[in-house]
Please model this.
Amino acid sequence: MVDLNNVSESLQRGDAEKVEELVRGALGENLLPKDILENGLIKGMDIIGAKFKKNEVYVPEVLIAARAMHAGMSILRPKLAETGVKNIGTVAVGTVKGDLHDIGKNLVIMMLEGAGFEVIDLGIDVPVDKFVEAVTKYKLNVLGMSALLTTTMIQMQEVIKAISDAGLRDKVKIMIGGAPITQNYADQIGADGYSPDAASAVDKAKTFIA
Amino acid sequence: MVKGGIEGGKYRLLSNEEIKMIHETSLKILQQTGIKSENEEILSHFSKIGAEVDLGKRIIKFSPALVEDAINKASSKILLCGREEKNDLTLEGKKVYCGTGGAALNVLDLETGERRESRLKDIADIAKLVDALDNIHFYLRPVVAQDISPEFLDVNKYYAALSNTSKHVMGSAYTVESALKVISIAEEIAGGKEKLRERPIISFITSFMKSPLQLADPTVLVLMKIAEEGIPVALSTAPMAGSTSPVTLAGTLAQVNAEQLCGMVLVQSINPGTPVIYGAIPTIADMQTMNFLDGAIELGILAAGAAQLAQYYNFPHYAWGGLTDSKIPDIQAGYEKGMNLVMAALAGANYIHNAAGMLESTTTVAYEQYVIDNEIIGMAMRALQGIEVNEDTLAFKVINKVGPGGNYLAETHTVQHMRSELFFPKVSDRSLREEWVSKGSKDARERAKEIAKNILATHKPLSIPSEVDRKIKSSIKGLKNI
Ligand code: B12
Model:
């Protein structure tokens, strides 16, 4: 018998192989995909998340756990779809045109994935059109933009304008971040949200799909 | 005042054997892992100069011979000039100079104490302040002028700096075109093309590498142009251990050194012997947030290690020290800055930037912090001077004269040596409590603010001759009057 606590614990250790093996085993024993997700994978991520907030574990430990979550999900996802369980939301994140900074963006992506979102990485130096196109192409719930330079942050305004012009503004929530970005700036350009770090970016994304 | 250029290098944390091991690992990285670029022009350049380029994977690999050749061509001594000769710097060996740095986004306003966006006027005012602070040896543009449109940013920042200090001015350029405009401004001030090459009153810094091991292509194109022009340029790479380089400090040094050697190969292939400064400035990432850390003790350790690597190759070294993650000039700022500056300086790093004014992981500066850091640098430079030992300083004559039970207060020997032997602080308070109280019980930050205000109200930097100013303003578009 596969014990779902084992799934949770292996996930917390970041043991992706073990998680895959256990998820496969659990499916073989006809455990419900929804149970494996909630009492195995998500439970493990929640424990890691709580420890992270208390400074008991650090980002690299969260990320290897997230990778294990991912590994488990890759096996579980088709079964979840068959049983009609939807993923919690789809987010695309990119760094705006002219900007090469991607560490913050990548961290936001990894944290979102860890929280169970389906995430599309649009990369760096992303032109306005590509952001607009992503909204319909991936049926996004949330679009995230990152800018680290005062010379590139103005691109965010362009993207929001182009999304409005395309008549898509009410289809997607837009959140932004990066060193020069402030809540004030987000309000000014009409973004739906801003967060100063990756952990709160996840919280923000969750409020958008709730 | 302690003049720049004092020798450091007594603090050595790597053995010769360990330096060799790091060097060899860097060569292995360059030969086996390689460096990535997405730009055709850059890839084809590397292919032409004998690197092994995989156009499909866009990876450039370097043979040890190619790297050694660049190391041998590089200059071991670089002159950076001020508009006044007394401010010249000679970067070589283990000589140490300290100055400002950064492209911070915010300033703590000197009047209100509030944090606000930085403006062009701040570049001018901080230049003026630095001009009067003796222990700050060069002026690297400290903030982004957020009131200037990106198109005219580079020319304005350089001109605001050059007009308000006669110390050496360093900055960056966002595009090749604006780099050329900046050079033409400097040529006008220096008195011509040749004169600027003889006495480079400006230099550039290029963040040409996106660690790990990937060229920041747009900046590389700027770097290639500057190298061709023969203007001094610093190669800067700032990986963070645990995020963009291995978490182990040795691995971080091996990687950042490989990145620098790639830059050396590039620059030497364009213009052999052009003045290029090795710019390994590694630090660590915060494991809690992955933020870039500046106040970490590991930054000081890595700066000292990188200085030893630069000395191994005989490259002048663009380094850093005197940084902090604190948001205000407080106790944390004091101890973090003091610790990491003294480590870089004792290791003999040549051109220590970001050593003055900077706060909050290079995103905020404060006027009073320049005054405080001027003092920290002075103390570090005094530490470098160490203890001079000769017949006169051993002082047997005066010891014998004063004899048991006497004192040295009114001896000629004391008068002769006190100014050179002892460091005289300007911010530190050494008075008795009564006097301190009677002067308003002010802390160091308050005292530093007063000094800063006083300098800004009274100091007159050497101005640029008005006919030169007129000529520059008429030929360069978008220059603001400040
Ligand atoms: C590392 C770094 C680089 C690296 C980038 C490597 C990489 N792979 O990204 C390199 C060396 C390439 C680089 C280049 C340059 N840089 Co830079 N860089 C930095 C530095 C030191 C740290 C950034 C970082 O990675 N932080 C760590 C991550 C985890 O934090 P973060 O990015 O802020 O992201 C967090 C939040 O902001 C938020 N977030 C971020 N994105 C998003 C998106 C969403 C949707 C949400 C919700 C949240 C969110 O969550 C993230 C995680 O917690 C900053 C200074 C600083 N202390 O911030 C300067 C800084 C941003 N750079 C600066 C400059 C000037 C440059 C250059 C122009 C330098 C030059 N002279 O060539 C070039 C520009 C290149 C280009 N076209 O983009 C300036 C910016 C000034 C300005 N004009 O705005 C800064 C402030 C440094 C300084 N004071 O000089 N840089």
